[in-house]
């Protein structure tokens, strides 16, 4: 039993979609769209060169459209990643925090912490805000 053209394109689309789901890197999503369009064209009886042209054009079109959108989203002002993204978060004091030492629960993890104001002391159970991150220590207010 030989596979028809649309079945090959559908198989390619499914494999590309599985690759995208496995990597979650938006690498296989555009060729998946191209393969899906080519499968529809093949099912409608388009010749192989039309299917291939549609695959290439749709894939390139999706890349051309999504790349600028993704770059704008990733490089926009105010985009913070890593520890910088935690600044402004609320945390819970787990061990007394003063100007020298202490611990907080931040985003489900225990962090070393210090009070930004040298005269402030935070007791366990108090809510604090992260004002800055200094290495692996959260500066709280």
Question: What features would you describe in this structure?
Answer:
The protein is of the alpha+beta class and 141 residues long. The chain contains 3 helices and 5 strands. A 5-stranded mixed β-barrel has the order 1-2-3-5-4. It is rod-shaped. The N and C termini lie far apart (71 Å). The model has no long low-confidence stretch (mean pLDDT 90).
Task: List its salient traits.
single chain; 141 residues; alpha+beta; five-stranded mixed barrel; 3 helices; rod-shaped
Summarize the structure.
The chain has 141 residues and is α+β, with helices and mostly antiparallel strands.
Strand content: 15-25%
Count of distinct strands: 5
Total helical segments: 3
Major sheet strand order: 1-2-3-5-4
**Quaternary:** single chain
Q: State the helicity in percent bands.
A: 40-55%
- In one word, what is the shape? rod-shaped
Helix-strand pattern, N to C? HHHEEEEE
**Structure class:** alpha+beta
Distance between the termini: 71 Å
What low-confidence regions span 5 or more consecutive residues with pLDDT below 50? none
Largest sheet: 5 strands, mixed, barrel
- Kindly provide the radius of gyration, computed on alpha-carbon positions and rounded to a whole number of angstroms: 26 Å
Provide the residue-averaged pLDDT: 90
Q: Secondary-structure map with pairings?
A:
Layout: H1 5-23, H2 29-43, H3 48-75, E1 90-95, E2 103-106, E3 109-115, E4 127-134, E5 137-140
Parallel strand pairs: 3-5
Antiparallel strand pairs: 1-2, 1-4, 2-3, 4-5
Helix pairs in contact: 1-2, 2-3
């Amino acid at each position: 039993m030989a596979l028809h053209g649309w079945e090959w394109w559908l198989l390619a689309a499914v494999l590309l979609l599985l690759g995208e789901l496995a990597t979650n890197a938006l690498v296989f999503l555009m060729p998946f769209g191209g393969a899906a369009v080519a499968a529809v064209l093949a099912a409608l009886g388009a010749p192989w060169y039309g299917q291939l042209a549609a695959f290439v054009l749709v894939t390139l079109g999706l890349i051309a459209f999504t790349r600028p959108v993704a770059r704008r989203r990733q490089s926009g002002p105010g985009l913070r990643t890593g520890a910088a993204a935690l600044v402004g978060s609320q945390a819970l004091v787990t061990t007394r925090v003063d100007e020298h030492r202490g611990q907080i629960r931040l985003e489900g993890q225990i962090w070393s912490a210090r009070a930004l104001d040298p005269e402030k002391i935070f007791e366990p159970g108090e809510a604090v805000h992260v004002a800055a991150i200094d290495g692996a220590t959260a500066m709280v207010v």
